[in-house]
Amino acid sequence: MGHRITTRTRASSIAGIIAVALIAVGLILPAFASRSLIQDLFFILTMLTLAQLWNLIAGFGGMVSVGQQAFVGIGAYAMFAGVILWGWDPVPAILLGGVAAFLLAIPMAFFAFRLAGAYFAIGTWVIAEVTRLVVAQWKTLGGGTGTSLPREATADIIGVETIARLFGLRDAAARDVLAYWLALALAVATLATIYALLRSRTGLALAAVRDNDNAARSVGVDAARVKWLVFLAAATMTGLVGALIYVQTARISPDAAFSVTNWTAYVIFIAVIGGIGRLEGPILGVLVFWGLQTAFADYGSWYLLALGLLAIATMLFAPRGLWGLIHDRTGIALFPVQRRLIGAKDG
Amino acid sequence: MTVLELTNVSKSFGALQVTDDVSFSVPRGQALGIIGPNGAGKSTLFNLITGNILPDAGAITLLGRDVTRSPAMDRVRMGVGRSFQIPQPFEGLTSFENLLAAAAYGQNKREAEVADQCVAILRDTELLPKANQLAGTLSLLDRKRLELARAMATGPELLLLDEIAGGLTEGECQALVATIKGLHGRGVTIIWIEHVLHALNSVVERLLVLDFGRVIGIGEPETIMASREVREIYLGMDV
Amino acid sequence: MIWLDVLVQGILLGGLYALFAAGLSLVFGIMRLVNLAHGDLIVFAAFLILVVVQTFGFNPFLSALIAAPAMFAFGWALQRFVLNRVLGKDILPPLLVTFGLSVALQNGMLEVFSADSQRLAAGPLESASIDLGPVTVGTMPLLTFASAVLVIFALNRIFYTTALGRAFRAVSDDPTTASLMGINPKSVFAIATGLAMVIVTIAALYLGMRSNFDPSIGPARLLYAFQAVIIGGLGSLWGTLAGGAIIGVAQTVGAQLNPEWQILAGHIAFLVVLLLRPRGLFPRAVD
Amino acid sequence: MSHLLSTHGLTAQYGQFKALFGVDLHIDPGECVAIIGANGAGKSTLMRSITGVLKSAPEMILHNGTPIGALPADQILQRGLAMVPEGRRLFPSLSVEENLLIGGQIRKGSGRWSLDEIYALFPILKERRHSPGTALSGGQQQMVAIGRALMSNPELLLCDEISLGLAPVVIRDIYAALPTIRATGAAVIIVEQDIARALIVADRIYCMMEGRVTLTAPAKDVSREAIHAAYFGAAA
Q1: CB distance from D169 to chain B under 8 Å?
Q2: Which long-range contacts does B170-179 make (Cβ < 8 Å, 24+ apart)?
Q3: Which among B169, B212, B237 has CB closest to D196?
Q4: Looking at residues A216-243, what average pLDDT do you find?
Q5: For D93, which residue in chain C has the nearest alpha carbon?
Q6: Is it the case that residue C287 has pLDDT exceeding 50?
Q7: Which residues pair with D12 in a beta bridge?
Q8: Which of B218, C99, C222, D209 has its CA 20 to 30 A from that of C207?
Q9: Shortest CA distance to A326 belongs to which of A292, A286, A278, A291?
Q10: Which of D52, D93, D152 sits opposite C172 (nearest CB)?
Q11: Share of chain A above pLDDT 90, in %
Q12: Model ipTM?
């Protein structure tokens, strides 16, 4: 028929090339970078991944969760359980985190989906609290005070020795490198998965449900199924990230692992400031957030107060975030999902 | 063969009886028009047929299967396509993507399998030049066209059209009528609610009059339009 | 006999939760806004009362009387200048704004008042109790519960017998048509949030007199309030009291079994109700 | 001398969609004007623009010569323009009496209308005053909607499609109240699809098609042919 369908734009082609280059640089970076830069990048990558996942369910799916800390926490604790109770190596134990978060997401979705609109948000929060309180009863993992990964488990994590030899690093620094690589892999995989999802048939369904639930059902979209799918997928990935973060931290407590500030508030601010409902948003947002964090974190509560006010101001004056402003001015989309019809003749 | 059959269907919202013991059936390939004053329960009737709301009493049969309690989604996949009276496009998607979503899910196929169909429908409904435009930015006429196009994209056996010609100019209306006639010619069963009578009567073979949720007449358009009761209730005067 | 005591204590504790919930319910009922900073606003009001107590040496009740108009003004302004601007079809902006407010308030209070626990000293009232035959109940819990009943009764009177209440209901039904009656929905929203903040002040008074508080405890109060609203059924103020009582009883029963289970038991009771009666115990017929 | 109400090149749009293209009309004190036209002609949009539900440029709508196009709906009502909205839109949480009271809650105006006078005009409403407004029949609901608008004692009453969905006999009952309403000196704009009815009650008519006024004439000497042409366009 002489037409074709594409989502590519010139900006996206360039972005694709840059992305591949960045990933390549990211992979070999530990050979040159200082330990503190690697640690910073680990922080940026894990926060970015968490923000992308929240953005997926809230920005693209319209499900505003304030309970993401449940998945981070349960993921981290599952990893600890694998290491401490069953003697797993911490790295494969990260997978347990994904499984645990998936299992927790099922009852959470079941309960929270019963709550209409905005009450969904508090529903997720309640389940996160329940999970925290239950985990705090788990005495073998330190109960309310928490515990650390045993020294012998962290000492011989698969691959650390190789990395140490390769880059001539101490074990502790080599562990950071390993964690960084895993974070990079997770961030890239998350971004790629979400991008692929949005470009798939399910992505269309998700957009349709978000725009008009009723009309979506009238063209045959199973709105509930789409929401379940996305919610469970995002929860699983969030659990993996949580487990990874605590492999690096090596010390856990219920209050820290289930912290609403660290794992949900920050994550929401990143997405809001960068731009909700676009893949570019959290990327921009996490850079701004990291910059603010580096510059002002010493101010403690004042910094958090300002961050809260900044999020409010963004919602009031630029509800689609920084990337929204850029997109409106330039029309650039680095990760376009729009299916454009090219070259179809009229008549 | 009967595509749709309603038997003693009733529905009320609180004290308001919006559908009152409605029974009729539509044979395959027929075009049925529904007329009646605003508030007569026409759109509610559509919502009952599509499963967006469930009846209090009575039965609805679609292609020989009882669907009285089936969810809307199942009925779409059985072949019921609908347009909304007030257009409800997916505003964040382009026209083309609106059709892709409808075709992929309504027919349960992959996007690539339905893309050509969607292009053809866009061409038929004169939306092709606006294929890549966000639906939220379309004009009323184009939104109406998109309603029709999206319903067509679901691959319907039975197409329900709700006031698709209202608010259009004569020329626009004629183009729309031609599109609907084309569909009808291909054997699609059509039920069409419309106030623009000359458009309606140029397509349909049978006319149903609804007032206060009741069927007060069904038959050939000429007979129905000639009925004194219909004239008084619906037109209010001799036009 | 111990269980009767646990039951009574639980119900009375529910009065406090109903006070937390009433403001949340009022605001949601009128403008479908869920304020994620509700708990932090309660804590904020408690600090405000504390400041008045410390500055003027008044007792907490009188101090609350002074704090209440200030909180009304704060709520009015918050709605007028911030929340009204983000209310709309999309639920995301108001949720995120109130979430930002929650974080900002918590940290602002932390900076100003430090993380130290505080308490509103109520003198001999704190330990006073009344002997009711089989059980002895504390005067303070009883007073809290009575206040909750009074607040809900007053709110119902406002809702169903005053012109303001009529405007509340009309705006809640259909803001556009209400504006055709000369009512400015945004002003009504602002008054409603102001009123909610007065209730928040009352809740804060009892919170501060009955237990220690610090800037971090807001979110937990939000959750109790939310659970009481959902258990009671959206839009039912008396239902909120029942919802509060259910959580209260679950908590005291849980605490009786194991002190560590107190909070958890309340949450579980909520989930059980949500499982069995997703629309709450007393759902509104319409809507 | 300025009119009670006039529009000047009034335009309106919903998002990208233009619904009115430069509408000029006016009404003087005590007058009754009917606006007729097919579905989608822009009649309701016109009503929504005048009453401030849709915003316009200030000078597009003048009330006694003062620009009011940009005022919100609540301030329009306070200037003495009250509307009976399409579909009646009673408040479901309010009883019949409360629905009436809320109409005069902000502006009482000075004039004849009070709760008692409304009950005198529509006696059935007094019997049913404690029922929820939505429990009434369509015709009774329409009476509440009219009474509600009258409670502010408006100078100008705008009635949007008050006969829609009602049986002819009920419509007659409702229109029977119109002379009483006009006797208070209020001007009335009615939007009506029933042309015959419009011609009987109005002093002047405006006919609209596709967002424009296509005909304006005194009701008593307009021809059916002229209406037909204005209603359906030249092509019909």
Answers
A1: no
A2: B170/D232, B170/D233, B170/D235, B170/D236, B171/D235, B172/B141, B173/B199, B174/B199, B175/B126, B176/B144, B176/B145, B176/B148, B177/B202, B177/B203, B179/B124, B179/B125, B179/B148
A3: B237
A4: 94
A5: C169
A6: no
A7: D20
A8: C99
A9: A278
A10: D93
A11: 69
A12: 0.85
Residue of chain A nearest B94, judged by CA positions: A338
Q: Return the closest-CA partner of residue C40 out of A134, A308, A69, A272.
A: A308
Give the pLDDT confidence score for residue C229 in this predicted structure.
92
Residue A308 · residue B86 · CB < 8 Å:
no
Beta strands in chain A (DSSP E): 4-6, 147-148, 251-252, 340-342
Closest chain C CA to residue D52: C180
* Structural domain boundaries enclosing C114: 2-120+140-276
* C133 inside domain: no
CA distance A87 to chain C (A): 29
CB contact under 8 Å between C173 and D92, yes or no, is yes
Closest partner residue to A125 among C223, C268, C271, by Cβ? C223
Instruction: Kindly write down the DSSP assignment for every residue of A35-97, as one continuous string.
Output: HHHHHHHHHHHHHHHHHHHHIIIIIIT----S-HHHHHHHHHHHHHHHHHTT---HHHHHHHH
Q: Which residues pair with B59 in a beta bridge?
A: B7
Q: Looking at chain C, which residue has its C-alpha nearest residue A62? A: C92
Query: Nearest-CA neighbor of C79 among C173, C192, C169?
Result: C192
**Strand D32-37 to D187-191 pairing:** parallel
* CATH code of D215's domain: 3.40.50.300
User: pLDDT tens for residues A292-325?
Assistant: 988 888 888 899 999 999 999 999 999 999 999 9
**C19 contact A CB<8A:** no
Q: Coil, strand, or helix at residue C98? A: helix
Residue range of the domain that includes D205: 5-232
Contact flag for A and D (3+ C-beta pairs < 8 Å): no
Nearest to A126 among C91, C111, C223 (CB): C223
pTM of the model: 0.89
* Highest mean pLDDT pick, A158-162, D86-90, D107-111, D187-191: D187-191
Rg (CA), chain A: 21
Looking at the structure of chain D, the number of domains it has is: 1
Domain range B1-79+158-239, its CATH number among 3.30.1490.20, 3.40.50.300, 2.40.30.20, 3.40.50.11190: 3.40.50.300
Domain count within chain C:
1
Count of CB pairs separated by less than 8 Å, B with D: 60
Across the interface, of B97, B106, B122, the residue whose CB is closest to A339 is B97
Domain boundaries in chain B? Answer: 1-79+158-239, 87-155
User: Which of C95, C234, C276 is best to mutate for the A interface (most A CBs within 10 A)?
Assistant: C95
Q: What subunits make at least 3 CB pairs under 8 angstroms with D?
A: B, C
The neighbour count for residue A13, using CB atoms within 10 Å, is 10
Which among D156, D108, D90, D72 has a CA at the least distance from the CA of C163? Answer: D108
Find residue D129's DSSP bridge partners.
none
* Residue with token string 């009258």: D150
Q: Do chains B and D touch (3 or more CB pairs under 8 A)?
A: yes
C207 is a domain residue: yes
Spatial CB neighbours of A85, under 8 Å, sequence gap ≥ 6: A140, A141
Q: Is C135 part of any domain?
A: no
Q: Can you read off the two tokens belonging to residue A62?
A: 């319209």
Report yes or no on C48 lying in a domain: yes
Q: What is the CATH number of the domain that holds C161?
A: 1.10.3470
